[in-house]
Amino acid sequence: MRLFWIAWGLALLLLAGVVGGGSWLISAASDSALAFRIGSWVAAVLLLAVGFVGAFRLALLGTIALKHLLARNLAIVIALELEELRAAAHQQAALLSAAGGAGPAVQLAPSGLKVPRFFGERSEVRELLGPATERMLEDLLDSLRHFNAAAGSDTATLRHELDLVLYRLESALRALAPFSRASMP
């Protein structure tokens, strides 16, 4: 976040300096010969152009730094929610293990596995973390829905669905790892 403010602050200072320097060049040459006035106008225009390009690049650098920070924070929030989901899935796995063989349905938690809240902001996930990460999270959501829909099924079906949820959960956490550990550019 600090890089964002530094870059934008320098961009604004550069703009102020360029506008001030350009206006000083023009006003200093107002009483001079025509050739000197034309030269000062050309120099002022070049100074303004270089200054605006430099300020734009600094602002772009600050915006990219902010985007990386937002991606990292989103990845951390999603990873925390996925850790809660993993704990709940392991709890369900323990219930299934206690039930034993492939007999009748096991009494699981009444609500099944909770769907994490981040699935509502798919556009943010796609924009900040990329389409591949969004696809992995969509696969996890699909597995969660299948597991929750299989709540009345036999133990073998529940175990299969839960194994698929756990596999996709681990894949999603691996996909998020580079973002949550990423350093600022």
Describe this structure in words.
With 185 residues, this protein is mainly alpha-helical. The protein folds into two domains: 2-64; 71-181, no CATH class. Helix content is 79%, strand content 0%. The protein contains five helices and no strands. Helix 1 runs antiparallel to helix 2, helix 2 (34-99) runs antiparallel to helix 5 (155-181) and helix 4 packs antiparallel against helix 5. It is rod-shaped. 21% of the residues are buried.
Please give the share of residues in helix. over 70%
Uncertain spans, ≥5 residues at pLDDT below 50? none
The biggest beta sheet, please? none
Mean pLDDT reading? 84
The number of strands is 0
What is the overall silhouette? rod-shaped
Q: How large is the radius of gyration? A: 29 Å
Number of helices: 5
What fraction strand? Answer: under 5%
String of helices and strands:
HHHHH
The domain count comes to 2
SS-derived structural category = mainly alpha
Cα distance, first to last residue? Answer: 11 Å
